[in-house]
Write a structure and sequence with these properties.
This protein has 204 residues and is an alpha+beta fold. It contains 4 helices and 8 strands. The protein has helices at residues 15-29, 42-60, 64-92, 96-101, and strands at residues 118-122, 129-133, 141-148, 159-164, 168-171, 179-188, 191-192, 199-202. The longest helix is centred in the middle third of the chain and has 29 residues, at 64-92. The two termini are 44 Å apart.
Length: 204
Amino acid sequence: MKKITVILDFIRIPVPDKVGRGNNVTGRMTGNPSFLTPDVPLGDLADATELLNRSYLAALGGGKQSKALMHQAEKAWEQLMRDQAKYVDRIAKGDVAIILSAGFNASRQPTPAKRPEFSAVYGDRSGSVILRCKAIQGAYGYVWQYCKGTLAETEGAWTFADATGKVTVTIENLTPFTKYWFRVAAVMADGTAAFSKPIEFAMV
């Protein structure tokens, strides 16, 4: 299981949201029994957040120098928040409740691999099989594979059968009276998901 950690999403948010996040972290960590000796004193973080807010307001109607001062304050604030996030990670040790109690956001566990359920029935012709799988939400298509005889022990031993945009496929020209193994994987936006558990099917 992947360890839950603080995510540094505060780096990418606009300055007004950074001010809000800084105030939230300071408020939540103040008096929090989980964080008795923070690496970044809460007063320092509060001061950096206030300076960021003042410099942002000044930059709205100011020139290049005002904007440069704002970016300088923003960079200093981000570094303090990074340091505080490391401290929270060290104390929390993967406990999402402790991370959230500090006002930070926590990473998520990876979603389980989407393994479609599927079945096989004989086709209209000898040596053909119709495979059908349960639709996977968000799938763009499906990749179908087979191996002949014994169950393949390596990825390279599987044979590509077809790629479809539907949940069914007909595979033909298979050897009659021979045992086959079939499997399918959904094609997602971020790549091909895990293959299904292989099913055994004897051709006629």
